[in-house]
Amino acid sequence: MATAEAEHSGIVIVGGGICGLATALALHRKGISSLVLERSDALRATGTTISIQTNGWRALDQLRVGSKLRQTSLPLKGIRDVSINNTTLKEVTIGLGEARCLRRSFLLEALAGDLPSGTIRFGSRVLTIEMDPQTSYPIIRLHDGGVIKAKVVIGCDGVNSEVANFLDLRPPRMSPTCNVRGFTVYPDGHGYPHDFVTINHNRVFLGRIPLDDKSVYWFIARPWTHQDSTISKNSDLIKRSTVESMLGFPAEILEMIENSEPDSLSLTRTRYRAPWDVLLGSFRKGTVTVAGDAMHVMGPFLGQGGSAALEDAIVLARCLAPRMASLDHGESSREKIGGALDSYISERRTRLVRLSANTYTIGSLLESTSLVAKLICILVIILFFRDRLGHTRYDCGRL
Ligand SMILES: Cc1cc2nc3c(=O)[nH]c(=O)nc-3n(C[C@H](O)[C@H](O)[C@H](O)COP(=O)(O)OP(=O)(O)OC[C@H]3O[C@@H](n4cnc5c(N)ncnc54)[C@H](O)[C@@H]3O)c2cc1C
């Protein structure tokens, strides 16, 4: 039961990561205020670096932070697929639109920096959401005993989302792979061209992206082993186990991993919402919804998690803002908000089912050991995803 001291708020966004901050900023640009509850004590830049693709830059431009962020990043010229056959490297280069790699802290600071002060409340962990039996609006309970009665709750709280639990979404699935990510600095310069290199060999998939002339961001998807759950906090063990899994990779790649910055390393089991979960998921209950990884966490194979979260923010604010202008506590207000959230979900669902199906198929092709499964994946790719970079050309539209 809610206590008498409950605070009242309009739109509450749970989670101050990329999606939560972008959603708050998108609403702010539309003249609507919101409150962001972030459990960390400061902006949280896990992963140190992030690649943003053409579709993500379109969303950043709508948020009016694109120009500022472009000054901190170099454009990538193309994707170079490098395949290893004995010692032969076969290279295929594809143009990439506007793709750039950014320091995550710059992205979060740019989004947060344009928000009115007081919008983000750090150190606020949401424990549960429940529906007020009297008003049918949501009630948020915080770890410090605080209670907030909100008109709208948007769950941008990532892969372990409390808001997704409230919506009864099934937990994200575990993939048989894990992701290792890191950042390597070359004090004398790395000398690599500014392109996105991928190497796929022996069920290990590597992506390498230069951040500037002296540093590169890389990620690896490799089979997950039980040992991985015990080494994820130890950077030396992460490096060792990853290098051991990369038999046959060029020496320069293994050195890149050995020389990576210990603080930048992360190892996580790959988790995802399957395309059919995205297709059938019920993403709204009353005036509560989800966005970003809480809605559609996906494998790393397209590098679209962050850009898709930015698109969510634009579409959500575009649908919600016009309905928030004149609301009371009545039932018709709830219905109006519900209708706006339904428009958001329906617009996003088509895009997200396609993105998650694309990622899922590429992941299955790389992970599977069965020839039949691989052939099915290849057929699906030829039929539906032949345009390799089609997913980056999506335009989420104007704010
Ligand atoms: C190491 C790594 C590298 C990646 N690289 C790329 C890349 O290059 N390109 C790309 O597009 N994507 C990349 N991704 C995926 C991308 O980071 C995510 O898709 C994106 O961050 C999703 O943003 P989000 O805001 O939805 O979730 P998150 O970034 O996870 O943010 C969730 C926020 O909610 C907060 N939170 C969680 N629970 C609560 C709670 N109960 N109460 C209050 N706050 C809470 C968390 O502290 C966090 O700040 C990468 C992911 C990882 C882990």
Question: Can you offer a commentary on this structure?
Answer:
The protein has about 400 residues and is an alpha/beta fold. The protein folds into 2 domains: about 5-45 and about 100-170 and about 275-390, FAD/NAD(P)-binding domain, CATH 3.50.50; about 175-270, 2-Layer Sandwich (D-Amino Acid Oxidase, Chain A, domain 2). Helix content is about 35%, strand content about 25%. The protein is built from 13 helices and 17 strands. Strands 1, 2, 7, 8, 9, 10, 16 and 17 form an 8-stranded mixed beta sheet that branches. It has a 7-stranded mixed beta sheet with strand order 5-4-12-13-14-11-15. A hairpin with a 6-residue loop joins strand 8 (about 125-130) and strand 9 (about 140). Helix 1 runs parallel beside helix 4 and helix 1 runs parallel beside helix 11. The protein starts with 6 loop residues before the first strand and ends in a 15-residue tail after the last helix. The mean pLDDT is about 90.
